[in-house]
Amino acid sequence: MARQIEAEQAKVQQRSVRKSATSSQSATAANSKIADVSTDVGNVKTQVSATQAELQKTIADLKSVTGDLGVQSGLVATNGKELAALKRLGDRNYIDIKLGKTKQPQRFGDITLLLKDANVKKNGTRLR
Length: 128
Prior knowledge:
single chain; mainly alpha; two-stranded antiparallel ribbon
């Protein structure tokens, strides 16, 4: 009987040793998986913040473009002083042309113009 009890106690001890070894292995595996997930989450946070910064820059650029289009009348010169101010900004190239009424089109840079009719009294012209 005593031998059987000792044998049973030895078996119980072996089982508890196996369980603790298995538990420690499971804990180690779980900790390594948690560390991997934490690293991945950190990388995703970095990427999200970079993407948000890029998105904010893009939104600002788009607002600037809409602002330019919305205030386009401010960028169109109606007299010599305004034209000189726009030339000083240097955003665009301006070419002074003198277009008279002729039968042949006149070339100015990349375009060709022909003055068909001019009404000086009404400041009206028709170009082709």
